Each structure stands twice: as C-alpha cells, then as structure tokens.
Amino acid sequence: MAGANSIYGSGMLELGQTFSMEQLVIDNDIIAMERKAMEGVVVNDETLAVDVTKEIGVGKDFIGHPTTMANIDLASDPTVFNRDMIGDWRAAGSKSCVDVAHEIVVDVLKNHKVLPIPEDKLAKIKAIVEQADKDFVANQ
User: Fold this and answer.
1) What's the chain's Rg over C-alpha atoms?
2) Which of 11, 42, 52, 71 is the 20 to 30 Å CA partner of 108?
C-alpha cells in the first residue's frame, strides 16, 4: 500500500525453508487483492448504492440486499476466499481457502499447458543472451 511493487516470499512457509503450492495460490490471491486496492475505489451513485439506501432506509439491513452481493467483488474478486453468506458456504461444502487452493493446484498440475514462446520473441531472447556472453568474455 506504500507503493512497493515487489512482493517476496510467495508460497513460502517457515521463513522460506518450506514451499507450498497451496500457499502460493493463496498468496497470489492476496497479491491480486492488494493490486486491486492500489487501483483505487470507484465512487459514484451506483457504487455508493444511493438508490438502495433510499429504498431500504437508515438503520436497516443492507448486507442481505442483492446490490450488496452484486457489488461485493468490485474491490477484488478472490479465487480462494469465499464471500458467500455462511449458510450458502456451508451448503456448498464449507471448503476452507486451503481446500480450494489445493483443488486449484491439482487442476493446474493436471491440465495446464505451457504455450511455446513465439519464435520472434525467442530470437530476441537468444540475441540478448549471445550478446551478454560476448560481453562477459570480452571483460575477462
């Protein structure tokens, strides 16, 4: 929030002595929420729910109103953190964020396909490496 643009330690546990793919997925979700927060908050009649406030009235229940749930992901849209009402979350199996992260890890390991680097970009990468090798040898 202070303007840092590098986050270190994603997926690490025990001061980096252990790595967890599930923790990496959870950390990725947290980082995405932080980045979304750094974009700022849109403030207008719709996001402030001005009409809904007039409709419901002061001191009434805004949490259960459909507008609240429709706008809940404006601040961020997490993958592993469930924002359903507790009854809905329980009805869906009461999965913890670790359970959801594990499902994502299993899916990625099973189904992810690595796309090849386009030839034009690969040629540029090779040229950079070759130049770096030449510069290194020249400075020996």
Assistant:
1) 23
2) 71
pLDDT value at residue 114: 93
Residue 80: CB atoms within 10 A of its CB come to 21
The answer to whether residues 80 and 97 touch, using CB atoms and an 8 Å cutoff, is yes
pLDDT for 4 equals 61
pLDDT means per 10 residues, the chain with 140 residues, are 68 89 95 86 84 84 80 81 90 95 97 95 97 95
Helix ranges restricted to H, the chain: 21-38, 50-56, 66-71, 86-91, 97-111, 119-138
CA distances from 3 to 78, 100, 130 (A): 21, 30, 35
